[in-house]
Amino acid sequence: MASDASVQLYQFSKPKGELAKSWELSTDGKTYTFHLQPQATFHDGSPVTADDVSWSLARAVSLPTTRFVLNVGGLSDAGQVKVVDAKTVTVELREPNRSARDPGRPVGDRMAQDERSGRGRLSGLQLPTGSGGA
Questions:
Q1: ∠ CA(13), CA(19), CA(21), 5° rounding?
Q2: Residue ranges of the domains in the chain?
Q3: Going by CATH, does the domain composed of 20-117 fall within 3.40.190.10?
Q4: Which pLDDT value is given to residue 133?
Q5: E-only strand ranges, the chain
Q6: Do 61 and 55 meet the contact criterion of CB atoms below 8 Å apart?
Q7: Which of 105, 64, 71 is nearest to 91 (CA)?
Q8: What is the mean pLDDT, run by run of 10 residues, along the chain of 134 residues?
Q9: CB 87, CB 35: distance < 8 Å
Q10: How far apart are CA 94 and CA 9, in angstroms?
Q11: Residue 85 backbone phi and psi in degrees, to 5
């Protein structure tokens, strides 16, 4: 079987950056700092900068087709993205976001754990037992 270097297999439970060489999460769980790959370039060879990342995220937050996905992760406004320097960007969430903190764990699994622990959105809601029949 031939190997193609452009095809990579990923483990969902172990996120790996392609554009970001590394990232950190602040102790309060609200600020991500992304350090871009120094050699990252566009198709024409021009370097990818933090300004480019900021513009791309601002555009994605403004489009209906991508806004929902970013909102789930806690990014809802272009003002949450800050350029630190040419190769560093921060994303400031309004509150810690469990989906963003634990990207390798399925959302449904996190929601179920939250419901069992009493931290979920349905906590305290009385649901009928059974299938709804009489």
A1: 75
A2: 20-117
A3: no
A4: 47
A5: 20-25, 31-36, 81-85, 88-92
A6: no
A7: 71
A8: 54 73 90 94 95 93 83 84 96 80 53 55 48 48
A9: yes
A10: 33
A11: -155, -175
